[in-house]
Amino acid sequence: MKNQMTYENIFNNIKLYFKNYWWKLLIITFLLAVDLITKALIVPQNQETWQEVEIIKDILVIAPTRNIGAGFSILQGQTWLLITLTVLFIVAITIFDMFYKKKSKLYGISTAIIFAGAVGNLVDRIAFGYVRDFLFFKFINFPVFNVADMALTIGIALLLIYVIFYSGKAKNNDTKYQNAETINANDERTFEQNENKDAPFKNTETSQKNNSSNKIKLKDDEIKEHVIDNNSQIYNGDHNAEDNN
Q1: What pLDDT does 239 receive?
Q2: Is 149 an active-site residue?
Q3: pLDDT at site 19
C-alpha cells in the first residue's frame, strides 16, 4: 500500500510537471526535428564522401563528416562510453529539473535546449555509431559541428547566465517568502495565545450576562405572576359582590 502511494505520488508529480511545462516539450521537439532533418539532408548515409560547400566566403562552410568521438576529437571510438555518459546526463538533468523548485523561464528554456541537443547526438550514436556533423567555421578553424552541438552550447551558456545572475535573486525571493510565512505563522500563534488568555474573562462576562438575563427573566415572571394574582383577586371580589346582591 505504501509503495502504491509512492508510485501514485511520483506519477502525479510527473503529470503536474508536463501540465505546467508543456512548452518545454515544444522546444525540445522543434530543435530535435531540425537537428535530425538537417543531418539526414546534408549527411546522407549512402555516401562515403561529400563535397564541401561554402555558405559564407571564408567564414561558414558545409563540410559533412562522421564523428566517432566527442567534441574536439576526444574519446575517439568510445561510442558505448559516450552513449552511457549521455544517457546518465539526460536522466540526471531530467530528475533535477523535475524536483528543482526555483524555476524561471530562462532556466526552463536553457534545460530544454540542452536536453534537445543531448538527445539529438544520442540518436546518432545509437543508430549509426557516430555523430553526423556538417557545419564548419573556416575563419577560426573551429571543429565541425551540427544543430545539436549548437543547442548544447547555447543551452549551457543560458544556464550559466541563469546561475550567475538569477539564481541568487530567486533564492533571496524564496528566503523573503519563507520569512513572511514565518512572520504570519507567529502572528497567528500570538493571536491564538491571546484568544486563549482572554477566554476565561470572556467566559466570565458571558456567565454574568447570562445570570443578568436570568434575573431579569425571573423578575419579569414575578411581575407577571403578581399581576395575574391581582387580577384574580379583583375578579373574585367582583364575583362575590354580585353573589351578595
Answers
A1: 47
A2: yes
A3: 74
Q: pTM higher than 0.85 for the full model?
A: no
In whole angstroms, give the CA distance from residue 186 to residue 192.
10
Burial class from Cβ neighbours inside 10 Å (0-12, 13-18, 19+) for residue 150 reads middle
Can you list the residues of the chain whose pLDDT is less than 50? 2, 177, 180, 201, 227, 234-235, 238-242, 245
CB-based contact 130:202 (threshold 8 Å) = no
User: Residues 89, 99: contact at Cβ < 8 Å?
Assistant: no
Inter-residue contact 118 to 86 (CB < 8 Å): yes
- Considering the candidates 35, 97, 124, 149, report the single residue annotated as catalytic: 149
Would you state the pLDDT for residue 205? Answer: 54
Please tell me the total count of domains within the chain: 1
**Domain of 86, in residue numbers:** 2-166
Active-site annotation holder among 97, 133, 174, 229: 133
215 belongs to a structural domain: no
Residue 34 lies in a domain: yes
26 in any annotated domain: yes
Is-catalytic flag, 133? yes
